Amino acid sequence: MTDRNNKKPLKIGILARGLSESVGGSKQFIADSIRALVEVDQRNHYFIFYNSSKYQFGFDQQHVHEIVMECPSKLLFDHYYFPKNVRKYALDLVYCPKNVVPLGINVKSVVTIYDLLYFSIPGKIHLSDYKLFDTLYMRYFIKRSLHRATHIHAISENTKDDIRQLFGIRDNKVSVIHLGLSSFAKGCLDKRQTERILSKMNIQRPYMFYAGTLSPRKNVSLLIRALGGLRHHIPHRLIITGGGPERSVPVHKLLQQNNLAEKTVILGTVTSDELKALYYGADFFVFPSLYEGFGLPLLEAMAFGCPVVCSNTSSIPEVVGDAALMFDPRSVQSLQHALMQITQNPSLRDSLKQKGYERVKQFSYRKTAEQLINIFESL
Questions:
Q1: What is the 3-state secondary structure (H, E, C) of 178-224?
Q2: 135 vs 98, higher pLDDT
Q3: pTM (2 d.p.)
Q4: CA geometry: angle at 340 spanning 335 and 343, to 5°?
Q5: 192 exposure class (CB count in 10 Å sphere: 0-12, 13-18, 19+)
Q6: Do 166 and 116 touch, CB atoms closer than 8 A?
């Protein structure tokens, strides 16, 4: 950390509108990082700006100031009300934890960039998960924010590489700070609770588990094709859960074509306890994504003792290290080979489970917060 004793406390503004989103890893990051920042840093003053009182934390600490500006419009909140209040409270620095530094910000700024999915990245991804207006909006503002921000927080080395490749941003302007293990993943269920929840959901073992959206880049279609060719060789069902994306692949049609409709359960959004029970009860977690800025479900699976089978692309190897069985997400045969290995080798599952427990210890929001604070004060 920087030498703090000779510096006056900073007034740091946090744009917390991202808490109003329905689902997603960025929402989880914003919530967990705000909690960690105000817990770790008792010296600087934090001004947290919400677009609705529904998302307010209600901190009872003198160095935390929560300001609610009821506004359903993203454009108005980000680019009018937030800059107006930055000036009103005479803030020293603003932290924008989701991709965009708003217009009209005249103080130093730090922006978190998760991924560059709004852009085509040569050799990596050419798919868009988002609606046309959102894509055009983010393409303009992400590019602008990368150049205008005083400093950039990339959540993985992969994201930093993409920033450099697409926009030529100099290395010393970008710091890689990994995400931490979410607060959700720290709450445990005992065996009896797990069994009761799975029974209530009518989940039959053995099963493999996927959590995430059904957007094209998540590559669930490859998983279905791979399982279709193995349906007579492995006993496992496939359980799918996750929030709704902007765009979805036609999963039900694919399941019918691959004769997997009877062996697959699509649950959609589930409660926190149901999600924990699904991780605990699975023989393994499978994650065939083509591109991730980070991949929070990987940390969740490892934290709950669920062996991980995952892609070997983008940021994913950076997150799992040697604690996962990886495959080529563009090859059905590669995934089938991995699935045969994991289903037929209990000792491999046990080894990955133990490696996962160790690996996940490296990711904490306290560490994330300390690194962010160091950036704030260094500016």
A1: CCCCCHHHHCCCCHHHHHHHHHHCCCCCCEEEEECCCCHHHCHHHHH
A2: 98
A3: 0.92
A4: 120
A5: exposed
A6: yes
